[in-house]
């Protein structure tokens, strides 16, 4: 089985760990016409979750997030396997 490895950049943000919070953020990104190649959500405490977003176009993601008032940490380099 062959593997496909790509250099990517990712952003993180923290949201309330409640049903629908990730959906709200992902819907906002979809409204901005931003495509993701990957996404993860991990609890980071009793009431918070960290979302990791791997955008198709990191520069466009940073610009759109800034204009929309989203607080994102990144971009950070990564390998997507």
Explain what this protein looks like in three dimensions.
With 81 residues, the protein is α+β, with helices and mostly antiparallel strands. It has one domain: ACT domain (Alpha-Beta Plaits, 2-Layer Sandwich), CATH 3.30.70. The chain is built from 2 helices and 4 strands; from the N terminus they run βαββαβ. The protein has helices spanning 21-31, 58-68; strands at 6-16, 36-43, 48-55, 73-80. The chain has a 4-stranded antiparallel beta sheet. Strand 2 (36-43) and strand 3 (48-55) form a beta hairpin. It starts with 5 loop residues before the first strand and ends with a strand. The mean pLDDT is 90.
CATH superfamily: ACT domain
Sheet/helix structural class: alpha+beta
Q: Work out the strand percent.
A: 35-45%
**What is the CATH C-level name?**
Alpha Beta
Number of domains: 1
Number-wise, the strands total 4
Helix content: 25-40%
Q: How many separate helices?
A: 2
Looking across the biggest beta sheet, what order are the strands in? 2-3-1-4
Give the end-to-end Cα distance, rounded to a whole number of Å. Answer: 13 Å
CATH architecture: 2-Layer Sandwich
Question: Do you know the CATH topology?
Answer: Alpha-Beta Plaits
Largest sheet: 4 strands, antiparallel
pLDDT under 50 segments (min length 5)? none
Order of helices and strands: EHEEHE
Shape call: globular
């Amino acid at each position: 089985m062959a593997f496909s490895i790509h250099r990517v950049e990712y952003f993180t943000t923290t949201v309330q760990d409640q049903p629908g919070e990730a959906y709200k953020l992902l819907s906002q990104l979809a409204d901005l016409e931003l495509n993701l190649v990957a996404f993860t959500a991990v609890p980071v405490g009793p009431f918070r979750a960290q979302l990791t977003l791997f955008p198709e176009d990191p520069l466009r993601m940073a610009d759109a997030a800034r204009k929309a008032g989203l607080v994102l940490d990144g971009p950070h380099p990564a390998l997507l396997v």
